[in-house]
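Margin note from the TA: students keep mixing up input and output lines. Inputs are the sequences; the output is the structure of the whole complex. Example:
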Amino acid sequence: MEDSRKKSVTSPENSWGEECGLVGIYAPENSDDIARFSYLSLYSLQHRGQESAGICVTNGGEFDRKRGMGLVTNVFAEEDLADMEGNIGLGHVRYSTAGSSKMVNVQPFITSSIKGNLALAHNGNLTNHRELRSNLEERGAIFHSGLDTEVIAHLIARSLQDDIEEAFVESLQGIRGAFSLLAMTDDSLLAARDPRGFRPLVLGQKDDFYIVASETCAFDILEAEPIREIEPGEVITINEEGIKSRYYCENKKNKFCVFEFIYFARPDSVIKDQNVRQARKKMGENLAREAEVDGDVVVPVPSSGISAALGFAGEAGIPYKQGILQNKYVGRTFIQPRQKIRNLKVRIKLNPIKKIIKDKRVILVDDSIVRGTTSQQIVNMLREAEAEEIHMAVSSPPVSHSCYYGLDTSRRQQLIASSKNPQEICQHIGADSLTYLSREGLLASLDSDDGGFCTACFDGNYPLPPPEEVKNI
Amino acid sequence: MEDSRKKSVTSPENSWGEECGLVGIYAPENSDDIARFSYLSLYSLQHRGQESAGICVTNGGEFDRKRGMGLVTNVFAEEDLADMEGNIGLGHVRYSTAGSSKMVNVQPFITSSIKGNLALAHNGNLTNHRELRSNLEERGAIFHSGLDTEVIAHLIARSLQDDIEEAFVESLQGIRGAFSLLAMTDDSLLAARDPRGFRPLVLGQKDDFYIVASETCAFDILEAEPIREIEPGEVITINEEGIKSRYYCENKKNKFCVFEFIYFARPDSVIKDQNVRQARKKMGENLAREAEVDGDVVVPVPSSGISAALGFAGEAGIPYKQGILQNKYVGRTFIQPRQKIRNLKVRIKLNPIKKIIKDKRVILVDDSIVRGTTSQQIVNMLREAEAEEIHMAVSSPPVSHSCYYGLDTSRRQQLIASSKNPQEICQHIGADSLTYLSREGLLASLDSDDGGFCTACFDGNYPLPPPEEVKNI
Amino acid sequence: MEDSRKKSVTSPENSWGEECGLVGIYAPENSDDIARFSYLSLYSLQHRGQESAGICVTNGGEFDRKRGMGLVTNVFAEEDLADMEGNIGLGHVRYSTAGSSKMVNVQPFITSSIKGNLALAHNGNLTNHRELRSNLEERGAIFHSGLDTEVIAHLIARSLQDDIEEAFVESLQGIRGAFSLLAMTDDSLLAARDPRGFRPLVLGQKDDFYIVASETCAFDILEAEPIREIEPGEVITINEEGIKSRYYCENKKNKFCVFEFIYFARPDSVIKDQNVRQARKKMGENLAREAEVDGDVVVPVPSSGISAALGFAGEAGIPYKQGILQNKYVGRTFIQPRQKIRNLKVRIKLNPIKKIIKDKRVILVDDSIVRGTTSQQIVNMLREAEAEEIHMAVSSPPVSHSCYYGLDTSRRQQLIASSKNPQEICQHIGADSLTYLSREGLLASLDSDDGGFCTACFDGNYPLPPPEEVKNI
Amino acid sequence: MEDSRKKSVTSPENSWGEECGLVGIYAPENSDDIARFSYLSLYSLQHRGQESAGICVTNGGEFDRKRGMGLVTNVFAEEDLADMEGNIGLGHVRYSTAGSSKMVNVQPFITSSIKGNLALAHNGNLTNHRELRSNLEERGAIFHSGLDTEVIAHLIARSLQDDIEEAFVESLQGIRGAFSLLAMTDDSLLAARDPRGFRPLVLGQKDDFYIVASETCAFDILEAEPIREIEPGEVITINEEGIKSRYYCENKKNKFCVFEFIYFARPDSVIKDQNVRQARKKMGENLAREAEVDGDVVVPVPSSGISAALGFAGEAGIPYKQGILQNKYVGRTFIQPRQKIRNLKVRIKLNPIKKIIKDKRVILVDDSIVRGTTSQQIVNMLREAEAEEIHMAVSSPPVSHSCYYGLDTSRRQQLIASSKNPQEICQHIGADSLTYLSREGLLASLDSDDGGFCTACFDGNYPLPPPEEVKNI
């Protein structure tokens, strides 16, 4: 049933489908480097969001924020950071679909209320965003954005707990869904993870600075040491009294997003004590064991398929060759000629190496197929490079269900595997064969048992109910 | 007593001391020209605020806003406006002191709430801003800016009136101070003026478009016709049912800001049926009658003193000469040399014409003296141009009291007339004599009786109590 | 006869019709302030060219240049100037017609040759540009721009004189037309004026700095003192040996451009010992004497007609009123609505004050009529403001002939007075009467006899033959 | 002996050490796509120069050029290219050292002369630049830049050949060194290669468009087909009469830069009928055969060492692992923190994967060592990742001699192999062993005999005498 209300300025739909990178830093004293460390961390988390970036610092007085659209290295100039002093810092990078690419949606999100100043940075997706927003609106709340963080800010401001930290914890008890959340108050850095632990969040240390970030690669760039992951359902407070941990809920269960391992996280990050690239290689090895396909050469789709292809090639004993070159200098805008050039969009980013491809039976490895469009173009491109056969091998199962926990896997009808079986998909993309890694093969690649991961996008087995409005569609 | 709370991110102090220009346009149907007309109107209201500009339009769906720092002609590009279609438009230009020059404070201010979408544009200053904000905070409101409009948006959202128009009227009953206020809802344009009518607001018409603007010069550029001024305490609703007027309070009394006539309004605007430049000329004539000073030449401080100087010269029978040239190309930034050049800051904008000044008894006419710094530099500059005598004549009384109704007349201790009498001021600026126009002479220049104007900055006779926090200092 | 050659990349036609402002500064030692002084001087010469600006400095080593399109205050940032150190500086502002608004044409023009490094800045127009260029091309020269300065640079490089200063003088003997020219070599500042002295050039001093500039207003801003004008046919060398003057030609005759007095120069500049504004006022007085017209009010076209209108009003005993307001915030780009607004282009810049205009016999004073378009729009605008009668009075004679000496008076057929007599022009612009100042009245306003001025645009009496290519058309 | 002349504004030293990418396109008729095709080609040649980019087109009339600093996708906007119509186009990307990063040095270089309009784009380095420039200066030439192309433009303009094409050929006979050169005249596209063929240049075709480009990857993006390489000493003319080829010299000999194969060219390009990546892989295989080193894992320095590492691993039978991750989002500017972070500059671009590195004997493969600084930092980084042993293997011989033919291999004293033997270098970078590929092993990797390549940077065996000024130092 369609929602009959007028479309709002700050429509919550806009907040869907984002993946983000977070960093929070706490220093015992004012430091020149709070903003610069935030910057370096965001830089190393750039793969989690290239749409916009923001940093906010405080020394207990005014909150000083700089934010903008684009890459970290474009948003911040030396003079911006030189002016930002404080002992607490919060940083955020964000990917978003076109519709909501507005400055008003760029985090960190700052407000002031009876509880004091508050900055929030969020990675994930609240499944009860719409209900909460609707309830808040009925109670007189006004909204400026479509962000989950704005709902959380309202909950904190309206909490009957006087203390902002207690109010923060109370707000966590009211929200549902996937969230790794950082908050900066006038004197503390707070970090929380949802009770399923869908999205990553890690605690680290560099000298007497504490750092909380989405991935360990943000520590590496600072020469900081990882301490441990924030646990599902845990909230951590860092302030002049040190670090304090507590659990804000009882029913907690590890359901980490398996797609972080498959695609999203940076290969050099360590999650659940496992190096991401190693996990991807194992997926490739398992895929080789499952696949009944022979070929002359294993070629990865760069750069997402490289680790799995290396694993596949090693296991299958077929040579690994980088038969597709990736252009290093892809910019944001690209100017099209009037004359039609086949597959130009793919060709701009990727170029096949004919010597490697021609007259070969190519095993083309990628991490996943979402809509099928890109795979189709790459297969097409290899055909033009005169491959004899093209066998596509995918190091994850078919993505057949939408994600409601923070990944942009699109509406279900756009997922090619929601309406087509592998054989039909194979035909659609024009390959000679298509093999997916089984769910079992995927989980066997990870140093953790089945129950610890969310695999809803493959099997529709949602650890938490999807948003109400989705269920009714 | 000092407020002991920590300084807020979105401190209300920041909202003081602004003057602004407003325009709202309602067309019966979607029009390409809504944004362009808003743009042209703002352009003609540029003198009311050069710090930032914003335009917001709607056709009943999403609110489309473009805003930025700087002049109207710099903020908007053709392609920005080409994309903005609607049947209602709201525009705002703003002057602000350095501290609050942040994007988050650039109007129109947009929010969404249970009442629907809302855009607000405001000229004036709420005297109970701090109490309202404090009360709202206690009731769980969160704030993003230091703007009066944000307080009003909260009042509207929290009103028990279901209808947004009724809620708007209710909010007007809760705010105190000076305000000319425009609001855009999903289907209506609302315009209101405070019960004293401190700041101007006029209704006009161009074909079947209705326009509400700060001054009539915004109609002239569009070839629109003025209909009438919005009355003190009146609120007007324009939508598909036409124009509706009502009064939201009983105790209304005309206390129009006399400084709009003296300095702020554009000379070609018509306020209270009187052309502003004519009024200024009369002030000059009355000043000539009051002044007991003889001279060889009447020289205006360009451009603020021109009209009064023309009146003075005509009345006194002394030749009017433009003895000071104004540089047309003054930019925002100005680079200083290391070597000291006397009076460079004034010299960049103004240049004396020695042939006119040298060996002459100069009557130097300006509209007002606020801090005295500029007058001092100009007198100094004329001395260097070898004027024989310099008699300063000011076409308004000494500004001795702060304004709490929307003009940036600075803190009281910065007003030179708050601590010095005219003789001391004369000495301070280095003139041979100094004459102010009397309060009576000023009011006699205006086609309206004494009671109709706010003259608090001259006599401390405040039509409304100043903000609580000011009284306690 | 049409030129049959292919149109060149760097077509000489592009260099026509420019007016420019120049400054050159020589300090005995390296100074931080060379670039900053150049900047301030250019700022005060901004009225001579708003299209582009450039500054070049040297300390005997590399020439350091910064240039760009736009106003002086936009082209240069503090950090640009902070980096530019030297003991010699050259600055240039330029107006140009749309076609040649290219970076490659922005001066100062820098080259290096066997004679050393050379920077040139030029105001004027060479009448033998095309012949020289053609001859140079036949001798193997290559061209990057359409600038007169490029031709001069070639002449200097090819001179048989070893010394760059001597080569400069030799080049002056080869060029014809109007030029005020500044040159910077590795160790000297050179300044020259053509044998007729068409365009202004003045020498001044600030402490031990020598300054050469287009107008004295460039000295005022620096608190420098004027020494004297560079004479027609004179060349001056300033270097560590001091100032040296010589004359490079015999047949010199003062033919200063009368339009500099009428319109172009800044009112506070002093030329030929006469203040420009005073001269304009006298033109207005003489115009009042010649005009047989009665009116209620004298209204200037701002700002070009103000001085003449003041003179006219004083002489005629008719009140002077600024019945047309000029918008202070005119930007470069202006966005048009789709709906037609009459006279929008004029209305954007000017707004009539109805109270002053309505039912009045208006004497509208301007300095000149070139194409007639603007006058027509202003008259039209006053008609709409319900003027009873409009009598246009122009403080110069009809412009009936093109200028070949550096002013952009357009092609002859575009000059309304080339094909229409005053009565027809009056009809065309829609005025009730039209009076031009006579040539005699004009010259009587100037403290100099007839022979000292070029009045070719009024009488076709060209002091130098026009360019060959023009004569043949 | 040092040159005693003053340093020139447009010093030829600046032009050293550049590598560039070229494209020229000829269409039989005016086409919308000339500029867009140039753009796409430059985009695919971006690896040859990221400092600046320029495109120039003509349809026989004016030459229309757009150029700027930065990447191709940043320099050109859709509207720029939409305005550029013609039937001939020329494009250039350029890398340069900091000193000469000036707009005046951005190609294509355009001039006009008696021979007509001319645009030039150049890749290489003239060894007699200084003599030619000096001779030209003595004959009156003026210079705007330090570019080789400016010297060539002068030679063409001064040629006694009337025809521009003949003049172009004559100029080729006067220049020495390395050059692949494209020229656009009013009606023709000219392409030439120096008599040794140091730098690449290929001819291709798309429908009825002819394209000349630095590498075949520029054809791939356009779906154009390669025809053949331009030969050493050949000049090709493309115009309405079709393609014409001739040789402008007799003593020609193939001495193609072997570094194009080792590092510079794009892996998917085909040069001398050999795919570049295949050649690199062979280098790795030969290196494995020559190296007497054992290890647990072969790790490439990304991305320069990947192909060679794959070859090495395959040949040695040691697993290939991407143990170092490359950051995809490296921007131009990077902000440093105040606190020291070890190896930050390398860490920003590269991150070791500890799981792969720790406790392993790592064979680290790169294509070359120039100064040694980066290698040292990477080795250091692997030490911190706890590698057990680090054996560096380099797929080319020690770079011990400067290049005078267009590669930026720095001054000889900066080349670590000019003063240290491999053992000393090994110590310097901190590796446990260091193996270079032998010159024989290198040449055996290429499908061409020894004599066909320039290997001067390895053996000092210069095919052409170095510049005079270098020999004398």
